Amino acid sequence: MPFFSCPICGLSLISDNRSLRCILGHCFDISKYGYVNLLLSQKSSDKRHGDDKLMLSARSRFLERGYYLPLLNTISESAYKYINGNAEILDIGCGEGWYMAGLKNFLESNGIVSEFSGIDISKEALRLAAKRCKGAKFAVASSSSLPFSDKTFDLILNVFAPMTESEAVRVLKPGGIIMKAVPLPRHLWSLKAAVYQVPRENKPLNNKDIDGLSILEQIPICYKFHLASSDEIADLFKMTPYYYKTGKEDQKKLETLSDLSVEAEFLLLICRK
Question: Are 159 and 267 in contact (CB under 8 A)?
């Protein structure tokens, strides 16, 4: 079972009632919501960032409708393919825990009981994740300074979230797997076209500079889904960064739409250490 590492000295944190404590006495309280805050504010320029309640509520409603199930299914089947027996699994940028919970349920239904840990910089997200994924361990932490010892995990999951590759490689066991999901250039293109006069493609993943990893597979997952109401359209838009970068006039364009067919285009990159 992996233990969190102290963000001050790097030593293992051991449970002490409702706190985690290292042998040097550094202590971190476990919140009533089930996560521990290991993000040192004086070392983090992104301490005020992370998904807020509006984005998380919209994304939770959207994901529960099943529109991204093809991605979750591919992640789950790929994990089952590459891990041997029970595994230590880390979700970097776990958000509200929807992908983690789906993967956990899939593996358990196939006889694999694994230990899950998740980190995110959003406290609001971890409140939801801890409720959704009972038994998993969660910490407020940055992907640029993962609070774990070297060679801890068999599998790392990273879905649409920032990830410092050198840190991910550090905490991955030899032979371990990283699964990284990113949007392809024309992901959500119809949604963008409905909002912007000149929509722009997403930047393609630069997968040529992954030190310490070898690429096993690059799996495209492309399909269309249909949003049948203005509320569903609004939820999709509000769960994306586009909403926060778009003026009110452009935002109002979506209010006139009662339905919309949208492209889901993902790439699942699978690498081994």
Answer: no
Prediction pTM value: 0.93
E-only strand ranges, 115-259:
115-120, 137-140, 153-159, 172-183, 214-227
Quote the CATH superfamily of domain 14-40+48-272.
Vaccinia Virus protein VP39 (3.40.50.150)
Domain borders along the chain are 14-40+48-272
* Calpha distance 164→145 (Å, rounded): 8
Three-state secondary structure along 9-71? CCCECEEECCEEECCCCCEEEECCCCEEECCCHHHCCCCCCCCCHHHHHHHHHHHHCCCCHHH
Total residue count of the chain as it appears in this document: 273
Q: Residue 100 in contact with residue 91, Cβ under 8 Å?
A: yes
pLDDT, one tens digit per residue, over 218-266 is 999 999 999 999 999 999 999 998 888 888 887 888 888 999 999 999 9
